[in-house]
Amino acid sequence: MSAQQGDTVKVHYTGKLDDGTVFDSSAERDPLEFTIGSGTIIPGFEQAVIGMAPGESKTQVIPTENAYGPYLEEMVLTIDRQQMPSEIEPEVGQQLQLQHPTGGIIPVVITDVSQGTVTLDANHPLAGEDLTFHIQLVEIA
Question: Are 49 and 3 in contact (CB under 8 A)?
């Protein structure tokens, strides 16, 4: 029996960047459970699991376009520091949420702070990166 579209699976994984840096791993926690084709995880990861049998392991390189997409300069916004809520003291690396006019929430990270401006980046932290995953299929539910 191998994993197919629509199956709910449990996997252990370790994700690395091209330089070998581990950015995420399920090693110290329960396996990741998801339904193949539900769109809850990046497309390249879903595709990598299809055809795997329980107990099987593989290493898969997922290119940017099947991961978090390219890094987009238009997702970087520099605002006047006066636009920041007075109770927030902006710091590089700080994560904030912006309210989109349609009601949605946009997560951003502060990437630069100057006397008069704050730079916000709405790109996913892994945008523009090819990702390498070591995947072990634990179970098909």
Answer: yes
Give the number of residues written for the chain: 141
Do 133 and 96 lie in one domain? The reply is: no
Q: 52-92: per-residue pLDDT in tens?
A: 999 999 999 999 999 999 999 999 999 999 998 889 899 99
pTM: 0.83
* Residue 58 tokens, joined: 């593989």
For residues 47 and 15, membership in a common domain is answered with yes
Judge contact between 72 and 123, C-beta under 8 A. yes
d(CA 107, CA 7): 30
Phi, psi for residue 66 in degrees, rounded to 5: -105, 10
